[in-house]
TrEMBL record:
Residues in dksA C4-type zinc fingers: 82-106
Protein name: Transcriptional regulator, TraR/DksA family
PROSITE patterns noted in UniProt: ZF_DKSA_2
Species annotation: Psychrobacillus psychrotolerans
Alphabetical list of SUPFAM superfamilies matching this protein: DnaK suppressor protein DksA, alpha-hairpin domain, Glucocorticoid receptor-like (DNA-binding domain)
Comp. bias regions, Basic and acidic residues: 15-25
Domain of life: Bacteria
Database matches in Gene3D superfamilies: DksA, coiled-coil domain
InterPro entries found in the cross-reference section: DnaK_N, Znf_DskA_TraR
Length: 161
């Protein structure tokens, strides 16, 4: 019995749970047969439910692939060693994340730019620095709130005192 048998059992159990979950999933159902007399909020609820199920299925598929890789590493005898540097992965990390194949230092924790809103590439989180326009002019946004407030706000005269 190796020190990774408990982790192997945990991985196999989780894999079976995911398989069972995928096999017993209901088809996407709508609440009505026709959208003609359906309230838009009901359609939105159905659409949200479909997106949630699709996202969960994608997550389950990715988790199953990670489990298969970890189980293959156990069979090959490479489990517990970082695939990047070859150092021993601490048992505490493997117990927390049984699918881990790298040490913490080599774990890929990058932000997936494909799923970030496109607006983030344009908007800055601060107005301290001017933004360069397409025509190479600099705009100073430091007082943009005050300019907008002059145009109009929902504040009453008492709020401005």
């Amino acid at each position: 019995m190796t020190k990774y048998d408990k982790l192997k059992n945990t991985l196999e159990k989780r894999f079976k749970e995911l398989e069972h979950q995928k096999q017993n999933e209901e088809e996407f159902e709508t609440t009505e047969l026709s959208n003609y007399d359906n309230h838009p909020a009901d359609n939105a609820t159905d659409l949200t439910d479909q997106h949630t199920r699709l996202a969960l299925n994608r997550h389950f598929d990715e988790e199953m692939v990670d489990i298969e890789k970890a189980l293959a590493a156990i069979e090959e005898g490479t489990y517990g060693k970082c695939t990047e540097c070859g150092e021993e992965i601490p048992l505490a990390r493997l117990e927390a994340v049984p699918t881990a194949l790298t040490c913490v230092e080599h774990a890929h924790q990058q932000v997936n730019e494909d799923i970030r809103p496109v607006e983030e590439s344009i908007l800055n989180s601060t107005t301290d620095q001017p933004v360069e326009d397409e025509d190479d002019r600099l705009r100073d946004y430091s007082n943009s709130f005050e300019v907008l407030e002059e145009v109009g706000s929902s504040d009453t005269p008492q709020d401005k005192q």
